[in-house]
Amino acid sequence: MTVTYLLGLLLPLVLGFYVALSSSRIRGYLPRLATLVDRLMTSIGLNGRAVIPVILGFGCVQLGTITTRILGSQRSALSPRRSSTL
Q1: Closest by alpha carbon to 22, among 55, 61, 68?
Q2: Where are the alpha helices (DSSP H) in 6-85?
Q3: Is 45 left (phi over 0), alpha (psi -120 to 50) or beta?
Q4: Contacts of 77 (CB under 8 A, 6+ apart)
Q5: Cα(21)–Cα(76) distance, integer angstroms
Q6: pLDDT at 1 over 70
Q7: Is residue 28 very low, low, confident or very high in pLDDT (cuts 50, 70, 90)?
Q8: 23: pLDDT strictly greater than 80
């Protein structure tokens, strides 16, 4: 039952997520995405670069938390860390 769950449900979702994320990174869409959502993220107290850790946090909380190190200040890194645990 556990193997069926892992191979049938989780593996395709995780692989699809990371394939989509890597293809958008290769095409250069992630920096454009950060620019597009900068105004929205500013309204909640973050900059546009915080969208990448938030997106990664949907796939893996640990990876999303680690990537908050790219953000400029400690204050701007705390909000994505808190939201990824939800």
Answers
A1: 55
A2: 11-26, 29-36, 38-43, 51-59, 61-66, 74-84
A3: left
A4: 68, 69, 71
A5: 23
A6: yes
A7: confident
A8: yes
The structure tokens listed for 41 are 């993220």
Q: Is the pTM of this model over 0.90?
A: no
Determine the Cα–Cα distance for residues 32 and 12; give it in Å rounded to an integer: 27
pLDDT single digits (tens) 60-79: 777 777 777 777 777 667 76
End-to-end CA, the chain: 27
Residue 39 tokens, joined: 């105004």
Q: In whole angstroms, what is the distance from residue 65 CA to residue 81 CA?
A: 5
